[in-house]
Amino acid sequence: MRRVWTVMMVGLGVAFGGAGSVSAQDVAVSRMAWGAPDLSGVWDFRTITPLERPAELADKEVLTAEEAAAFTQQAIEGRNADRRDGGARRDVERAYNDFWWDWGNDLTDDRRTSLIVDPADGRIPALTPEAEMWQRAQRDAGVRPVRAPVLIGSPAHGPEDLGLSERCMLGFNSGPPMLPSAYNNNVQLFQTPDHVVIFNEMIHEPRIVPLDRRPALPDTMRQWIGDARGYWDGDTLVVESDNYTDKTGSFYTIVTSYGSGETLHLVERFTRVDDDTLLYEFTVDDPDTFVASLTAAIPMQRTDGPLFEYACHEGNYGMTNLLTGARVQEAEKDGQYGPVDNQSIRGRESDHVGWGDHARGGHHHDGQRYLTYDKNPAPVSSGRPGGTWPPLRRGPIRSMRTDSVGASPARTAVARATAQVNRMTTALMRTMSIRGR
Fold it and tell me: Which residues contact 299 (CB under 8 A, 6 or more apart)?
């Protein structure tokens, strides 16, 4: 594909935490044959600049050179997985040795204290009162769906009880929006006159973005990575996405999810700053979840390295081993010495109380257990115009073995405590596994 070069005046109109905009400068920008800026290639977005400004730096938007050097050294030493302090448990939690981790070793060039540039405090905005009430009720009830990439302390009754990245549904850094994380912080862009493909290395997740102003999908069609439409705003590619499923969060980090994706409007901006830098900005706009919008700016660096297939499902031995181990633990607590087969756990409806499938009654088979759902759950007021939040009722499971009658709270508590400890010590190994390497 023929490319041409032009000289443009670039002014990065991003007020980095109030530190002021980068001044305009003459920059030679490569263009595609049809005139659009050339954004193609593989881009690396790793950085040790935190998403949120640390509390101890609350009033500091930009670090001095000396402070940046000290912060960098502290971050690298703190994440060094070859350390052996903290005892055996901490050593296990560090998972791989340091060779396999790829957090990055540098702050952004402007030495910002957070990737978030709006709000000005560099922090994720507060939840609305309605969203906070809903989120608290959901935590207390412990119902599905799990919207975070990683769920520490899951009961592991079935795959649906694990985090989205643990299930290979979404990457823990691919978003959307993209966020720097533990490894595979690479994205490749492909361009045609009427489409752009955003292809993340993590879980080899492609987003095909039409640029022809075609109508959006109907509101009833929801997707894991949303419905994206793109257009050019000068020399900046703008991608706006809606129609996310309620099975994802409106915004999430690796272990935390906020709100529901069904109310998210996401705006992403890609600007070629120079031959080696692509500025990626995103804005999370969800007034149902947050009291204010959230904007972050992440400079991406060109890399010549190829992307490698992240064969997540094909190599997800952690999923099989985790669920098998949970079944063995349950069997051992019951005095058995082998996996519990489906016939022995089929049980009766009277042995269970629902896990909150709010729309349906009857049993659901998740591969290991039959659970009974509440047939007439009471709706929970959402505080939103014309709607209610999903019902959040769940009663206690009477027995970890569904063919036994009568409550076994002690065994349930032990099993859950054991599972929580087990998951805390293996969370990083499971989620950031070498299955895709």
Answer: 45, 47, 108, 109, 273, 277, 278, 279, 280
